[in-house]
Each structure stands twice: as structure tokens, then as C-alpha cells.
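## Example record

The block below lists the input lines for one assembly entry, exactly as stored, with component labels intact.
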Amino acid sequence: MSPRAREADVVVIGGGPAGLAAAASAADAGAKVVLVDRNRELGGILNQCIHDGFGLHAFGEVLTGPEFAARCIDRALGAGVEAHPDTMVAELAPSRELVCTTPGERYRLRAPSVVLAMGCRERTRGMLRIPGTRPAGVYTAGTAQWLTNMRNLRVGERILILGSGDIGLIMARRLTWEGAEVVGVVEVLPYPSGLPRNITQCLEDYGIPLHLSHSATCIHGRERLESVTIARFDENRQPIPGTEFDVACDTLLLSVGLIPENELSRRAGVRLDATTSGASVDGRYMTNVPGIFSCGNVLHIHDLADWAADEGARAGAQAAAYALGETSQEKDESVRIEPGDGVRYVVPQTVSKGSEEVLVSFRVAAPDEDRTAEVVADGRVFASQTLRRAHPAEMVQMKVACADGFDVDRLEVRLK
Amino acid sequence: MTTRRVTCILCPNGCELTIRYSGEPTAESISVEGNTCPKGIDYAVEEMTAPKRTLTTSILVRGGTQPLASVKTACPIPRETLFDARRALRGVVVDAPVAIGDVVASDVAGTGVDVVVTRPVPRPS
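Predicted C-alpha cells for the full assembly:
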């Protein structure tokens, strides 16, 4: 290990859309920025998301994932960000000192501000505890996407997809185009988890059946997957006896949720929110550890890369301001922001007392129509917005303003 | 009177459109409800008359850092030509380096549309 730590103003961990945007905006603000990523190529998961639908918000045009990544990379490098690809962060201390490893070298890196942007990973079969045998042919949807789009490998011929998350829906269409037969998508909830447009363009276009309120109860096959038993599930997510049927398939893709990848954060003492599994942050995206910020999918799961990048840009600007001494170095007295009726979670979880504005991101608890979301405290309504369609798959954002500064203990975001 | 409900796929909002028309659907005979932007009306007309989709897939690259380059049709193509277009790209192999926007096939499946690279693949340094 080199004797002296390398120094920067802002270190960003993770080179996906959130990290690249955070790095670019921090560099724009005049900070010396180092971005580390464990992959050889920057861009994160966008590189394997070869479908289109990215960029309408961030760049005003429809792009594929790799094109979106290329724009983000160009923007970060153009702003003067120093990128360290192929670099693993082995340790992160609350003092914002990192130990990085890269082939042939292990070095320390120190900065007043660190931005966490490590993204998320997929839930696996083990986490679902589906009974049965353990044959080959069971993949997470993202692994199948990587094998198909990056490695040119065929994952199977007859595909069943468990979970209606967007990655599974996208893979249903992708594998259909590649000549596989997708026999169905099974979702335990009574409504789909993916975006409505993906139900249309990935399933309905190809006549792929979507079985709502159904899930897998057993996996069969010795060497290779042979079939999966499906049953109808009740509202308590329990299988209803007598409703089982077997679906013959050689491949099962799991698209059953994403988990923020916060191992490093935890070791640095960052406190996590039990609902989002991401850090609990204040209005400037700072965690409980002063100088450590969080954004993108490691903070909470986003449905669009555009929103992850947007959040990254805001967090990066705050990280730069903190590093350059332009904002308070301590945690201010804070106003709690909490989910109320019909709302599952809210980010950020606090905002400094006296702040004049905060952008809240939240998800509703269940699908509904024509509801009003409002942000209230002590009977006063600070913001409200009509939701023609409220759906857990779609993150909602609201700007909450208070001209004379928030002077309450608690703000509640709720549906009316 | 025919009534159809479709989800607009042009942006992540995914507006639920209610489309009504008598006889053959045309730009003049169609009425659209539920769109939150003007593009929804054009989408509804196209979806009822000649639906189009963008094909995104990948092709083989020789001598690059990656075995595949991702590609897309430069604009949406008629939905019924998607599988023909995919088949037409099956034998296409390009030599690295390739850059975003490089044309790897022209007039794919007779659609008059080019297929372009969406992911740069350099040669190993």
C-alpha cells in the first residue's frame, strides 16, 4: 500500500447513471472529483440495458441504455472527473478514507465528501425460498440479460418469468425476439410491478400471458429445470390449495425486486431506512455520517435511470458544496419527513429546519386513481398534487416550499 | 363505434388512452381521451392504423473488447416486420472498432430504415 493517501474533494463510488451525474455536477461546482467503479467500463447496468426508453427526461430524446451511458460518461469526463475503473472499494471509514484495490495496486483515497452511488442487486431464489430441486436454468432476469446482451449466450428455449418487474418484462420481449418461447409471467400481487408501457410493448405485443395473484410453489428437474408448479395466491400471499398447475419450461427468470447494495455504507456507520433499505438522508442527500452522501438506486430503487441521474446531480452538487466549505459541516436540527396514509416511503427522510425548499420522492402503497398527494404539518398543507394514476411502480416527486423556512418537527406525505 | 383502450408507449408516463372511431380508423375518424400530451393523439392514430416499434438487439463484433455491439433501428419500424428485421441481422458481423451511430445494415427487411450501433466497441489497447 502506498504510504500517503491520495486526495480529492469528492470521491464518488459507482459509475452508473447516478454516480456519473454526481461526479459531473460536483466537478462543475469546482471540486476535484475521483470516481471509482469496480467494472472495467463505466456506465453501470446501462451497458446491458440495450433496449430504448432512456433519456427522455435527462436529454430530451429517446436513447438506449448504452447510448444514455455514453452521454453520462462524456459529460463526467468532460467536466474533469478523474475515473478509476476496475477499482474495488475495500473499505470506507466514517472519516471518509477509502481503501481501494485495483489490479497490481492497493491505495488509500481521502476526501471531505464521499458520494455513495453503488446501485442495487437483484433478489435471488434463495431469498424467495421456493421449494423444490436445484436444477440449472434458474436465473435472475438481470443475469439472463447480461448473458444474452453482453456474452452472446442463449439462456434457454422455453422461459417462464417469475415477477413482473421491468427487467423481467424487458427480457420477455428480448428473448422472444431471439427465438425463445416465453410461456408466461407470474406475479404474486394483484397488479403488475413494472411500468404500464412495458406490459404493453413487452407482453401484450407478443401475446405473452400475465398471471396476476399467482406465484411459484415448487421447482422441478434434476440436471436442468423441467417444470415449475404455479398456484393462485391470496391477498396474504399464501398459496390457495387446489389451484396448482405445472408449467413445462427449461428456464425460470426471477424479476422479483432489487436491493440497494449498502454493505460499504453499513461498515461506514451509515444508518439505513427499514423500508427503502437505503440510507436515511437529509434534504441535501447527506447520511447520518457527515460528509457521506447517497443517491440513485443505492439510496432507493428508481424506476427510471433518468431519475437516478437527476438525483445524482443534486447529491453531487451538495457534496461539492460541503467539501468546499460552502455549506454547514454539521447536521442541522431537522424536520422529519414521514410517509402517511397510502404512502410507502419518502426520501429524503429529513430536511434542515429553516430550509425553504425540499424535493420529496415517494411511492404509493397500492394502485389507485384520481388521488391527491399532499405534504402536511400541523394541519397546514405545504404542497399538493393530483395523481390521475397512483401506482407503486411509479415514483412520484413533489417540490415542497416554505418561503419563511420549515419550522415544524414533522412533515407528512400522504394521499387524500 | 369501436372503442379501444391502449397504453401509450412513447414515454414512461404510459398514459391510458381511450380511442373511439367508426368504420376504418383514420386521423379524421378517431377521438382520443386520456392523453396528457399531443403526441398521444399521433400515437393513437398510428397504433390503430400501422403500429410501429423500435427493434433493439445486438450483432457480432470481430476483434473488439466485447463480443457484441448493441444496435437499434434508427426509427420505429412496422410491428409486423420486427421478426424479419431480427432475422436479417443474424449473419451480420462487423470489425472493431465500432462507434455509436455506425450503420451496420440499410433498408432492413425492406422497411427503408437503417440499423445503427448503440454501444461503442473499441479494439483492445
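The longest strand of chain A covers residues 380-390. The radius of gyration of chain A is 22 Å.
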